[in-house]
Specification:
Length: 927
């Protein structure tokens, strides 16, 4: 695969379009440009303007630069010694918690060197040439990573700071200078991304290092919003998310004069500049942090620049990879993503030659389907197709189309239409077009000067890939079946479960998604491995248990290594056209063993470097979990059924809810009747197959209340009567017809979960332990299904997530007698009570850490539960785990987040006698 490359534009020289008359004269230049395009993925940066947070970087490129992030080790629980307590069944007690040290939260500041900046602008004076600018010289790069003091009135976001006016308050453009159509067509920010082998801040700090403005970005695109909550949000990047840098440019559109409360959230380093002035700065924090400022802004278009550096550092939160630009809308109390209509591309991208997508022939389709993209500016109107398609040299600069980061084959194109085939490797997400605008300098007077290429991305539109991905799984229960080998598995035993599974999502055998996971078992997965065009790499699997893997004609059945007792499968798959290779994985686990997720280690040549007169390839290595969109079942299943709606039935004794009914899903209590509406699609193969319904993995009985045929594709509209059984929690409904499984539909299990009292603490940094909430004003009362909050977003607070407190009430359901251990991971303090006894006390300031309870012997039943948690700024997290052994010390429950089915608020006992007010804890409002 190859990605677009920028050939440096000739500064100051007017430019014109490449015409057929100059094509022959410029063959040599075209071939040189093609060599650049296929030989490197790191295009030259656009104009480097504004002050960078990144330092200068120069130095020799290694003969073979390999991008391979360090493997991420799972976090280790702390071993906490404890005294013996002979008066109880408890066996250990955690050591007293320590107060948070200043080193846990780096807050230091450094100074920045300011350099001049200028917005790229200007256009060709000739009417027949594209409205593209020449490039101004890049400013001198700062010598240090972040060389600035925190901006005036910046705080940690807990309270709204006093507002201020910018040093240059006037906008660069008035609103009247920009038409409504232009604002609609040019929404978003222009983004450039650079991949690194290690932490970019460290790499850019090396003496003589080149700044980003002198490096070729690995990706350029338009981002409609800057709201990436974690590394999954960056999943469509064509390189690992462990170490990279990004820069976004454009305008902040201010519709009317007002005070704007702006937020920057990131891990690791980030910065926001408005009109050339730094207004938000994250000073290389090692954990996710949100900072805020309040600015009085005049109406108009204010120049906006954002920078971000993500690096795998030594702390356990380096995986976070978050970058968010937010604001608090008028009348609201919590920050949300800055909307696309408030962001606009830099002025040099306002040319009519820039590609714009207006619509698709269809918004969803299967892998291999042809899709037509409609819009403008996809290519030069002078490019005319021949009977055999476009000329070879012109085809090098044809527009490219990406489906959520996967390159597609362009079948034909005109300036207004593109026809493409949905490629292997495509998933649902953003569809974009990139145009290679070919230009020549007219310094010679006849457009025969050097050739230049400008890469311009389009806006993005959503496209849904409807292909059902996964492998056909045959699960075998091997209890009381001795001496089973690979060859005898399918001939001696009948599988208990046959279904299509999207992939491998567990690590320990006991978490395999089958009811007999704790005993001896085996599974055979069959189907096809999709290989995208031009991709090459290793298929990698590690397993403690015996495993056999067959890919096409390649076969591996490894022995365990002598050092780790782990079997390592590595099968090389070479580059070529996109294709599907037969895949079969057979795994036998008759001991307490593990199967790790399948990984794909892709190898791609991203460029060349000259070493001692020889051209040496630069190879990029990207290791990631094998995406489900590369797995195809051996047979194409019927179109899966779709659950369209759920209606709760009448109940004789409705629950007296102490909180508002959840609005995100219908609420149904265990034992309550309800109806499910479905669309079922039957063909000849599935005409006689019964429809199955499941809730939280349990089979759900039903009666057909109504059924009606609709349309010509075999669609049947069905209404089912059901009763919600006991032992539910997550509320996940699925329907299955043969091998086809519906998308999940979630309900709220009304009698499960906890009651949460939320307090918005007004002092931004003044809390060292959970406050006395008896006299405090409660902001909100709501239901929580479990206690598993790993980020500020996961709390979903109705106010700024900086200084706050939560108290949960309810009961915990124990189904089996045994020895139970509870573990709380939090930042900052927490306390836990079970059956009225305090079992965890870590009520103080600290970085994220774990505290374990003593072992508790619990009988089947329901026990009162209460938990307190407070946060005093930076890195909000709170999760409660449990694990258990039976009385014979056999594993009963593996360590896991306490599931929602184990919590109920119905037996919570007396709750605090206070209402939800929507105000801060001191009673003040947000006006």
């Amino acid at each position: 695969m190859w990605s677009p490359t920028w050939v440096p534009l000739l500064c100051g020289a007017p430019m014109g379009k490449l015409t057929p008359a100059t094509l022959v004269l410029l063959c040599g230049a075209l071939l040189a440009a093609a060599l650049f395009m296929f030989g490197t993925r790191r295009p030259d940066a656009s104009a480097g303007h504004g002050t960078e947070i990144f330092p200068a970087c120069a130095g020799n490129i290694p003969a073979c630069a390999v991008e391979n992030p360090a493997s991420r080790q799972p976090e280790q629980a702390q071993a906490l010694p404890a005294p013996q307590d002979s008066d109880s069944a408890r066996e250990s007690m955690p050591e007293p918690p320590r107060r948070k040290d200043a080193s846990d939260r780096p807050v230091g500041s450094v100074k920045i060197k300011q350099s001049g900046s200028s917005e790229p602008g200007g256009s060709s004076s000739s009417g027949d040439r594209p409205n593209l600018p020449t490039r101004p010289p890049s400013p001198p790069a700062p010598k240090r990573i972040i060389d600035a003091s925190p901006p005036p009135n910046q705080n940690l976001g807990a309270t709204r700071p006093f507002s201020r006016v910018l040093n240059r308050p006037s906008p660069e453009l008035e609103l009247s200078d920009v038409s409504e159509k232009l604002k609609q067509d040019r929404r978003g920010l222009y983004g450039q991304y650079w991949a690194f082998d290690s932490d970019p801040l460290t790499a850019l700090a090396q003496e003589g290092a080149k700044p980003l403005s002198e490096r070729k970005p690995d990706l350029v695109r338009i981002d409609p919003q800057i709201f990436f909550v974690d590394n999954d949000a960056f999943a469509d990047l064509p390189f690992p998310q462990a170490n990279f840098a990004a820069r976004w440019e454009g305008f902040l559109v201010v519709p009317k004069a007002a005070t704007f409360w702006l937020f920057l959230g990131c891990d690791n380093a980030g910065r926001v500049d408005i009109n050339g002035e730094t207004v938000l700065l994250n000073q290389v924090q090692t954990r996710y942090v949100e900072v805020s400022t309040a600015l009085d802004l005049a109406p108009g278009l204010h120049r906006l620049t954002l920078e971000f550096a993500q690096g795998m550092l030594s702390n356990n939160d380096s995986w976070r990879c978050a970058r968010k630009l937010m604001w608090v809308p008028p009348g609201e109390s919590r920050p949300v993503a800055l909307p696309p209509e408030m962001l606009m591309l830099p002025q040099w991208m306002w040319t009519d030659e820039a590609p714009i997508i207006t619509k698709l022939s269809k918004g969803e389709g299967e892998i291999g389907d042809e899709i037509t993209i409609y819009g403008q500016g996809f290519c030069d109107g002078s490019q005319a197709p021949t009977e055999d398609g476009f000329a070879a040299l012109d085809d090098l600069f044809a527009p490219q189309v990406d489906f959520n980061g996967q390159r597609a084959k362009v079948l034909k194109y005109t300036p207004q239409e593109l026809t493409v085939r949905v490629p292997i490797g495509a998933g649902s997400g953003r569809l974009t077009v990139v145009r290679h605008l070919v230009l020549t300098s007219d310094a010679t007077g006849n457009h025969s000067g050097p050739l230049h290429v400008k890469v311009i991305p389009s806006n993005s539109v959503e496209f849904k890939v409807t292909t059902q991905f996964g492998l056909l799984a045959h699960w075998y229960n091997l209890n009381n079946v001795p001496n089973v080998d690979f060859d005898g598995l399918a001939t001696r035993i009948v599988p208990e479960i046959v279904r299509i599974e999207p992939g491998f999502e567990w690590v320990m055998r006991g978490r395999a998604p089958v009811p007999f996971a704790k005993g001896a078992l085996a599974c055979s997965w069959e189907g096809y491995l999709g290989v995208p065009h031009g991709e090459a790499g290793f298929l990698c699997i590690d397993s403690v248990s015996p495993i056999r893997v067959v890919v096409g004609d390649l076969h591996q059945e490894p022995e365990p290594s002598s050092s780790t007792d782990t079997r390592h499968v590595r099968i090389w798959i070479g580059s070529g056209d996109e294709r599907k290779l037969p895949l079969r994985v057979v795994w036998i686990a008759d001991t307490d063993s593990a199967l790790f997720p399948i990984e794909w280690e892709s190898h791609a040549q991203t460029g060349e470097v000259e070493v001692e007169g020889l051209r040496t390839p630069i190879v990029s290595v990207r290791t990631r979990r094998l995406p489900a969109c590369l797995l195809f079942p051996p047979i194409v299943p019927s179109k899966p059924p779709a659950i369209t709606k759920v209606w709760p039935g009448e109940t004789e004794a409705p629950l007296n809810l102490p909180f508002e009914t959840p609005k995100d899903r219908p609420s149904i209590a265990e034992g309550q009747s309800f109806q499910v509406g479905l669309h079922v699609f039957r063909d000849k193969a599935s005409a006689d197959i019964p429809l199955e319904l499941f809730v939280d993995g349990m089979a759900l009985s039903y009666k057909v209340a109504a059924s009606q045929r609709s349309g010509t594709e075999g669609k049947e509209v069905i209404l089912l009567d059901c009763v919600l059984p006991p032992s539910c929690g997550e509320g996940k409904l699925t329907a299955k017809l043969g091998l086809a499984v519906s998308e999940p539909f979630f309900i709220d299990v009304a009698n499960k979960g906890l009651v949460a009292f939320l307090y918005d603490l007004p002092d931004p940094v003044g809390y060292s332990q959970f406050p006395d909430v008896a006299a405090l004003t409660c902001h909100s009362i709501r239901k929580e299904r479990s206690i598993d909050f790993t980020t500020a977003e996961s709390f979903a607070l109705p106010f700024v997530a900086e200084t706050f407190a939560v108290e949960w009430f309810g009961a915990i359901i124990v189904e089996h007698e045994g020895w139970y251990t509870f573990t709380a991971r939090s930042d900052d303090g927490c306390r836990v009570w079970v059956n009225g006894a305090e079992i965890i006390n870590d009520d103080n300031l600290h970085a994220p850490r774990e505290t374990r309870s003593e072992r508790l012997r619990l009988l089947p039943g329901t026990y009162s539960f209460r938990m307190q948690y407070f946060e005093n700024t930076q890195h909000e997290c709170c999760t409660l785990y449990w694990e258990a052994n039976d009385l014979g010390e056999n594993l009963l429950i593996e360590r896991q987040v306490i599931p929602s089915r184990a919590f109920t608020w119905v037996n919570a006992g007396p709750l605090p006698d206070k209402p939800a007010t929507g105000k801060r804890a001191d009673g003040s409002s947000y006006d």
